[in-house]
Request: fold
Amino acid sequence: MRTRNFLPMNRADMEAVGWKELDFLLITGDAYVDHPSFGIAIIARLLEKNGYRVGILAQPNWKDLQDFRVMGKPRLACLISGGNLDSMVNHYTAAKKKRHKDVYSPGGESGLRPDRATIVYSNRVREALPGVPVILGGIEASLRRFAHYDFWSNDVRRSILLDSQADLLVYGMGEKPIVEVAERLNNGESIDQIMNVRGTMVPLSGDVVPEDTLVLPSFDEVAKNKKKYAEGFWVQYNQQDPFVGKSMLQPHGRKSVLQNRASLPLTQAEMDAIYALPYMGTYHPSYEERGGIPAIEEIEFSLTSARGCYGACSFCALTFHQGRIVQSRSAESIIREAEQMTWNTRFKGYIHDVGGPTANFRRPACKKQLTKGACSDKQCLFPNPCANLENDHEEYIDLLRRLRNLPRVKKVFVRSGIRYDAVLADRKSKFIRELCEHHVSGQLKVAPEHVSDAVLRLMGKPGKGVYEEFVQEFRKTNENLGKKQYLVPYLMSSHPGSTLKEAVELAEYVRDMGVNPEQVQDFIPTPGTLSTCMYYTGLDPRTMQPVYIPRSMHEKAMQRALIQYRNPKNYGLVEEALRSAHREDLIGYGPKCLIRPRNYVRDDQKDTGNKKAKKPTRRSGMKKKDAPGKELQGKDAVIKGTASKTSKDTSGKSDRFKKSVIAPLKGTAGKSERSKTVRSIESPQQGLSKKTDRQNEKRKQHQGTQKRK
Reply:
């Protein structure tokens, strides 16, 4: 591989291409991966195409100013991104525990970027390279551009533009605004004169409000008053449309931040041009000896077909970052990239994905969106698909067919997830059959997220009935094709509105589906989402109605454990959750129970006053005189359905049998080792073992000896 095709990462690389100075220095919290799935790669290649000299400073040591001076002062500006993920999400779990792996770093090593990377890098640049304009971009800056609730510090923080001391912030995907800003800087304008570029935010001093600008509740107001926070967020949320949205100003004490109107969507030709830039398609070879970059594994042979999403899930930040208007590449552009991919020596014949935020969204929801924007008073799919929705999968099906017919392509997968409600709304194209027959690798990922109508309504997701209809269609289609393929549901715990009651309802559905979900996302309140606003304020900003919030880490842990109730490690949390929800009926031995009882104490065993509780006695295994022919239960007495060798059905058992079932034997209660050998009602024992017979014979001989004495 020719490393000279990568952009310079140090002074030696600059000298190799004959550069003494950079125009732009791009600083990122990720390793340098020259692939269009990484925003920093797109911006760097786009600036290069426009004639600028660009260098990449990946994961600098923020404790050493010299790291920021390696390539000298850039002529025009430093562009800073925290990386493909918000640095706090990258570092911490929903339980605020440190993550042990960073897939965007060499060898998956964690700790190579600081917390709040965008702020830290920006302030270090101010020290190391004084006088250089600082421009922020990337998802961390984009979602934290207004005053926002921060889950990890549990308070409201100022706009990242002010905390970072940067000069300008580019929000959204950023291609159009960064080219305009670069051109104006190159033409001699100072950074503080560039105030009105679409898709940017700038700091302001003084009390002057630009014309046709909405004034939001101030930082002080939203930090002290949760109702004001919710009202302000709802205004922000509805003004992100590039056609009807307005500029917004939010006061922060003596300063303010001004968000200019959103950048216009890219045309298909513009999208094609961006994805035709000369990316290397992989990570810089300097990382090879450190184990490479794990994130490349899924994306190296994947194809981005579109961006933007009109699904508008409440917990998703896409509305704030990519917008609701879908922008797509042409089929020819995607085919060309796939053909180039097949010549890669690492390509094994499998295209891992063809999609975007939602795989089956390839066009705007309706033609109106391209002139009048997305509707602010209703959604395209929720609660039901809009009558104006142009929902035709034929073009996407044709694209997939063309891809799988390419030479050296063995299989084309769809892994980025589909909106099943959109699939069901399209009855003409027979997309499900095409998907099941050619593009599923045995499992298809879908995201019902929950089953409670109350929670789904707050999530902005379709009801349980829609998901069940899709499950039936998927199953029927695979049966007709003679295939055994399965759905992998993505589920979310602890979303606003989910009490223990709704969490138990979801656990019961998991039980009835017969799945053991590994993909469970505990809701993380990330900046820029409706759900985070609900979490912080306890209000639904759309209606201003109160919403229940599971706030404590313990309750969040219980809700997650309920979904994964089959995991023995979760037993204690599941039991506590069921008792707290007054659902003790789900603790037992019946087919509908989630867990078996543990450390059960009968009423007649409980300590009353000074009276000691009666201990359970060990049964000898002898026949009762008053019940001839009936054997007493041995070590498996605690299991339903094992009363006798021929017993296959426990229905209609006497109360006496039921009582013996729930009274654990001395020496077996609470013993996990023995419980591992316990058999359920679905697989009863076939008879007593020879070892048990010998033990009973020894007991009889011993009792006979005692009588003779």
Notes: The first strand starts at residue 24 and ends at 28. Residues 690-708 form the longest helix (19 residues).
